[in-house]
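Case study.
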Amino acid sequence: MLGAVMGSWKQPAQNPESAKSSEASPAPAAVTSVKELPSKPPPFVSVTASMEWVKRQMEKGDFEAAELLFRQEAGLTLEQRLDMAEQLLRNYRRMEPRVLARLLLSLPEGDARSRMLNQLFFQWASDDADDAMRCLEGMPAEQLKKFPLHNTGLGLSRLPAERVLAFAAKLDDRGRAFLAEGLAGSVDELGSWSNTSAMLAGLNLKPDGEAVSTEWVLAVNMTRLAPAEAEAYIAAESDPARRAELLGGYAWIAGVDDPVRGILLDAQIESGKMREGHFRRHVNAWLSTDRAAALAWLRGDEAAQILSPEQRAAFFRSNGLEVVR
Amino acid sequence: MKLVFQVLLHGLAVCAGYWLVSGEAAQAPARVKDTATHAKTLAVTGTQAAKASPGKPSGIELNPLSPETWPNEIALIQKMSQSELPAALRRYLGCRFPDVRLRLMRYLFERWALLDRAGALAALEGIPSPQMKDRALRAILTEWVKVDEAAAWQHVVSMSKDTVLQEAGIQSLLSLCADKSPTNYVAWTKGLEDPFLRGKALESIAEAWARKDPKRALEAAFMEENPYLREQLFELVSRHGKAGIDPAQALDRILQLPDQAERVRVMEGWVTVFANTQPANALHWLQQHANRADLQAASGIIGKAMSGQTKLVADIRNAALSLPEGPLRDSFAASAAGAWASRGHHTPEAEQILALSGPCIEREHAVVAIETHRKPR
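After joint prediction, the assembly is written out as follows.
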């Protein structure tokens, strides 16, 4: 009896139907059987009507019907295909992610495609990191360079560090920086610090470029949970660039609870862009919780020393201090 | 004989686990050189598992699993015998829809844990997806703590090989058990060195506590020394503890918290729930405390909520005018105006509300919201 059950578990041979259909690129993979050929999509009238058609086809068991709309002979314009893709992505839970990946990859490169791919892989990795990673691992490095994975690291942080690092080796520096940003962002919710820190150590990235640095993200998360431990962590960092980022993340959170301290910390930030952003956040947060105290401080000597005259003038202006109420 | 059969089934579950892992490796797509080939790879990988026939065990219908049909499986799972579970696991893991896979893991492993806990734990080892594993472990632990909580803890604590699953297991156990003796579990977290794990653990405890006994959880929040736990308790009680707690009374006590930043932060959650559920009472409470500068943000929250529940602009204007001139009225009117415009009402109406606000940061935000939603003539 045992043998009989075991027998049914042997690894299946590759399904010949899938193999046949996949040769005829870019045709979608075969549906349930050869006899049941996919219905041709009706001429495009509206996204709603096409979505209805996809829904009906899926109810019949054709889970890949949406792909037919993206074939050349379906005759959709690029704008219509982008609208369809948006709508299909909104119905992510009712779609097979691989089908979505294929149709998004069939769109021309650009911001819209990149954004939608990011959205798809973020959601997919959050639901099933192994499955999403298998899809990513199968992509050529050139393909991966075209859409940096902003938030996918959140879900991927649950995978073994060595697997994520092997995948990261296929990415360029920009791709690795975005991956690391997502990984660092997960530490207070998902995965484990021992696993994620092994990934971040293996990536060994210096703060640079357009992605938010892992140091900044870590400091934000740690300060929220345990400020004293965040301070100790920052104190132990000897690399000046990393330390500056850690301080930035620490000030970002600490300054909301204690605006004056936050603004004093902000003033120590070397990067002009980061400093400006921090000042704006902390003064605006203060103005929207205790306007009288914030304005009193803005009028004082400390503010005059820390903020430029233009910055102070902008804050006063937004509170009508140059106009008569 | 029964013992021998059990051992054989455990062995079978382990084999199933290894099969799942090895099958996974075999399915991993080879590196491909171009996009077209890559599209083919995706096509094959995605459907291979779903199309692989696991053999049809008796009593299990093999209709395609879809977001519409998966609930039909629940009744089938509840009737499954121990020997049918491995094949069902393979079938579910081969489902094309991640959300369906996740949902079915819960029911399958609850059943498995009832019939054969050790087999369920062995089968879990072979699942490649961390999220499916997490869901399966939670299902097993749900059943396990009903009969032997200590053993369930012992198992999770010894899972050090997979720290990701271990931490997920700790969170599951805390959410299942912490409500019975929350203070003991809080004391336990003090021994955790990793601040991130400690944070997750405190959150799970606060969640369980706030759900089970919101009144005591709120009392504990006022006494708690750990600021993170205190914040979590306040927030989660405001979200879950609607029964038996008067929000106005709770807010009166929150107004006495010594730290202004914490007061403002805690009030945000409470005032939001209060204003969304009892807008008139929330406004009345605000009017009673209208001399307090630290209610500026709360006033904005109430204004925003009122604009979502009031049909007449005049009512919102009257509410704004009932507050003293200054930060509270400005915040109330500006937030209400921005929300009014965002809900698609006429822009001139939003501007009538905004006219009651003086220049301030909230007004700047409202102007942006109004301009964004201004309809072209």
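Observations recorded in class. Chain B has a mean pLDDT of 84. The radius of gyration of chain B is 28 Å. We will return to this complex in the next lecture.
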